[in-house]
Amino acid sequence: MNYKFMRLMLFFDLPMLTDKDRREYNRFHKFLLRNGFIMMQKSVYTKLVINNVTSAAIKQRVYCNLPPAGNVELLEITENQFSRIEYLVGNEQQEVVDSTDRLVEI
Length: 106
Prior knowledge:
Layout: E1 6-13, H1 19-34, E2 38-41, E3 44-49, H2 52-64, E4 71-78, H3 79-83
């Protein structure tokens, strides 16, 4: 099977004014981690997917778990585009998982 590796990049900005807002933030953050997203920066997460079908399934899960308020954006790019990220300040993170395995233990 020929795989077309893609990256889903998720950006979000959620309100943190009330206890309910903080609970929603924590719930969404934990949802992202449980579903294999890796934090690149605060409120910027990425996930490696192997094809468009997998990407659509992950997107559907995100849509079903959106917080009630705030901004959430999702960008789908190719692995080739993702590999051309330029680090202007700081260094590339060493703990970025770049594997097609279903379960990765860190």
